[in-house]
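Entry 14. Structure prediction run on the chain below.
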Amino acid sequence: MVNEYSLADISGIYNLHLIQDTVNKVVISGSNHVNDFKCDQRNDSIFINSGKKINFNTAKNNLTLHFSSLTKLVTNDPVTLSNRDTLKFDHFTLWNIGEIAEVNLTFVCNFFYFANSANTLGHFYFKGSAGFASFFNRYGSSVFADSLYCKSAEIYNESVGDFYIRSEGEVKIYIWGPGNIYISEGSIPNVVESKGDGKIIFIPD
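Output returned:
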């Protein structure tokens, strides 16, 4: 058990599961040096580290975060990330800055902020709804947010991967790479900056 936390900063290779709950706890299971696992809490933040002991076991441990008031999640190493039931937030920030991330999240929130790093490969699936969503997508990642119903959004895409978005209103777009932006026909694209080869492609609403 841990005290209530709003930030989770995670280092290590995991199958990561999010569960919104009335209790706050961290559960780890698996065969890859579980005893090296450390969880430190500082005020309203938890910092999780696997110890990064070098070994030949490539299996990911399972890490489950039970939380009541999470607002920011940072992953620093390769992960898969998913949730069991629809998550509900006022605002939520997700930074996947490890080398690989495979993400599939369903949530409802007023404000959503997402970013990955200049070294991140992966596929990111976001579903549910958001009042406003901001995305900073880089390197070789593809984002599928066409099942995330946004009232408005902004996209910074410098990835070779494509980006799919659905919005009821304006979508501010910064095309900084070769990846295309696939946007629902009901959206209003506003290309603020275009210094890459990516194209705007409309898809049926």
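Residues 20 and 78 are 22 Å apart (CA to CA).
Filed with the rest of this week's runs.
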